[in-house]
Specification:
- This protein is an alpha+beta fold.
- Helices cover 19% and strands 28% of the residues.
- The protein is built from seven helices and 27 strands.
- The strands form six sheets. The chain has a nine-stranded mixed β-sheet with strand order 1-2-24-20-23-19-18-17-16, with no helix packed on it. Strands 15-14-13-25-26-27 form a six-stranded mixed β-sheet. It has a four-stranded antiparallel β-sheet with strand order 3-4-10-7.
- It starts with a helix and ends with a helix.
- Bound molecules: 2-acetamido-2-deoxy-beta-D-glucopyranose (4 copies) and fe (ii) ion (FE2).
- The site of one 2-acetamido-2-deoxy-beta-D-glucopyranose (NAG) has 3 residues, from loops.
- The site of one 2-acetamido-2-deoxy-beta-D-glucopyranose has 4 residues, from loops.
- It comes from Nicotiana tabacum (Common tobacco).
- Pfam families: Metallophos, Metallophos_C, Pur_ac_phosph_N.
- This is Bifunctional purple acid phosphatase 26.
């Protein structure tokens, strides 16, 4: 007990390496990075013939008034109907969905159901029921508050989760956080670490594993490299096949042409999901879509502008170092111009937060070719620390670069608790061997409504009157 206390205390000693940033000295007493065995109770198949399993929900429209419910039945298609309503045990409404299935090498998926619930009221608890007779299952979800600049809302951020005991610890800690919705930054099941029919089997176990959260609150999906599943040795060459069948997104609501990139508005946040592994250079569909979507962002209605992507742009880990450079060179200018508040990424199996920096001055012939402090730039946060079977990315580059504010190689998740249009509380929570410990916390000030908003508005009015005065002078 005493030893444990001493150990816990040592956790808070941080190394100041001379730069402004901190590298945590915490060394994790790690559970082995192996996947939980198939027969473990976290993967248990629900009781009853053809009972719905792998139930998960996501936001299904642009504004948060629709939910897409998805589940799998193993034995026969069965109904795609959802019965739902505002009181428990009494379903006032029904919605009809659709069913599909796919093969992956010699694996055949169960029957994948998707059902769209529309015209929901804001800020209410809905109860829903799926499946037939004795095998029917009941769940609930809460709709977000209406899109409003002062709506408060708590998001969780999870990345690179996988299905190990560390993943389970992350998920359990997240579920105690009180957050209402997950921003998932890619790399879901790590099923692609398996071969042949086991790929599909590990997608199924992952679906049953996350159901405990994902059936009750929306997970906002983005895709990582482990979703690509380009496996020519099995003849499986269609990128993102399993992911696209299983994890639909509301891309059409934001006029995207691909489920891999899209945007939603939820409470006071405008969330943009990008795909690192889809074309994004100038003139591609994703580039054109993002250019238009940024014009749709109205900070008067949704003050918080959040971007999700898989590969971090500012990463000082040895793992995946500079992999974000291609996307940085294409999009960073826009992120600064549009004053994005925060960008969440995964991919690197560790935690890292940047200062507000940008590297947009270099243009081959001249300009500073390195990141500099920039108040208009986003904070970049890497939470690829969900706990998958590849283990930790434990080696950071030394010395810590100036752009890096805090970094630690251990497992955890983050929460972003939006209070109002100016303030959000951010926490990174380490899975401290079974206990939740808040390590990296700060107040995120809104980039649009922050302290100088009032002044900016005045300046704008001032400028306006100067121009008017000039115009009137010119007329004289
Ligand atoms: C999908 O389900 C249908 C209807 O049960 C079945 O006939 C078909 O063989 C299934 N497809 C695959 C790829 O297994
Ligand atoms: C699928 O193929 C693998 C490798 O060829 C084999 O080991 C496995 O038994 C097959 N599974 C089924 C369900 O046919
Ligand atoms: C390149 O950067 C320099 C210095 O910032 C600037 O003066 C010049 O106009 C830029 N050239 C182009 C083509 O953007
Ligand atoms: C916004 O929230 C912060 C943090 O809770 C609080 O200090 C501040 O007073 C709030 N602002 C307004 C206008 O309510
Ligand atoms: Fe990744």
């Amino acid at each position: 007990m005493l030893l444990h206390l001493i150990f816990s205390l040592s956790v808070f000693i941080l190394i100041d390496n001379g730069n402004a940033g901190l590298t945590s000295s915490f060394i994790r007493n790690e559970w082995p990075s192996v996947d939980i065995p198939l027969d473990n109770e976290v993967f248990a198949v629900p009781k009853g013939y053809n009972a719905p399993q792998q139930v998960h929900i996501t936001q299904a429209d642009y504004e948060g008034k629709a939910v897409l419910i998805s589940w799998i039945t193993p034995d026969k298609p069965g109904p795609s109907q959802v019965r739902y309503g505002l009181s428990e045990g009494k379903s006032e409404f029904t919605a009809e969905g659709s069913v599909t299935n796919y093969t992956f090498y010699n694996y055949t998926s169960g029957y994948i159901h998707q059902c769209f619930l529309d015209g929901l009221q804001y800020d209410r608890k809905y109860y829903y029921e799926i499946g037939d007779g004795d095998s029917a299952r009941k769940f609930w979800f809460e709709t977000p508050p209406k899109v409003d600049p002062d709506a408060s809302y708590k998001f969780g951020i999870i990345g690179d989760l996988g299905q190990t005991y560390n993943s389970l610890s992350t998920l359990q800690h997240y579920m105690n956080s009180g957050a209402k919705s997950v921003l998932f930054v890619g790399d879901l099941s790590y099923a692609d670490r398996y071969k042949y029919g086991d790929v599909g089997i590990r997608w199924d176990t992952w679906g049953r594993f996350v159901e405990q959260s994902a059936a009750y609150q929306p997970w906002i999906w983005s895709a990582g490299n482990h979703e690509i599943e380009y496996m020519p040795y099995m003849g499986e060459v269609t990128p993102f096949k399993s992911y696209l069948y299983r994890y639909p997104t509301p891309y059409q609501a934001s006029k995207s042409i691909s489920p891999l990139w899209y945007a939603i508005r939820r409470a006071s946040a405008h969330i943009i999901v990008l795909s690192t592994y889809s074309p994004f250079v100038k003139y591609t569909p994703q580039w054109k879509w993002l250019r238009e979507e940024l014009k749709n962002v109205d900070r008067e209605k949704t003050p918080w502008l959040i971007v999700l992507m898989h590969v971090p742009i500012y990463n000082s880990n040895v793992a995946h170092f500079m992999e974000g450079e291609s996307m940085r060179s294409v999009f960073e200018g826009w992120f600064v111009e549009h004053k994005v508040d925060v960008i969440f990424a995964g991919h690197v199996h560790a935690y890292e937060r940047s200062y507000r920096v940008s590297n947009i001055h270099y243009n081959v012939s001249s300009g500073d070719p390195y990141p500099i402090p920039d108040k208009a730039a986003p904070v970049y946060i890497t939470v690829g620390d969900g706990g998958n079977q590849e283990g930790l990315a434990s080696k950071f580059r030394d010395p810590q670069p100036d752009y890096s504010a805090f970094r630690e190689a251990s497992y955890g998740h983050s929460t972003l608790e939006i209070k109002n249009k100016t303030h959000a509380l951010y926490h990174w929570n380490r899975n401290d061997d079974g206990k939740k410990v808040k390590i990296d916390s700060f107040v995120l000030h809104n980039q649009y409504w922050g302290s100088n908003h009032h002044r900016r508005k005045l300046n704008k009015n001032h400028l306006h009157s100067v121009i008017l005065n000039r115009a009137s002078t010119a007329q004289l």
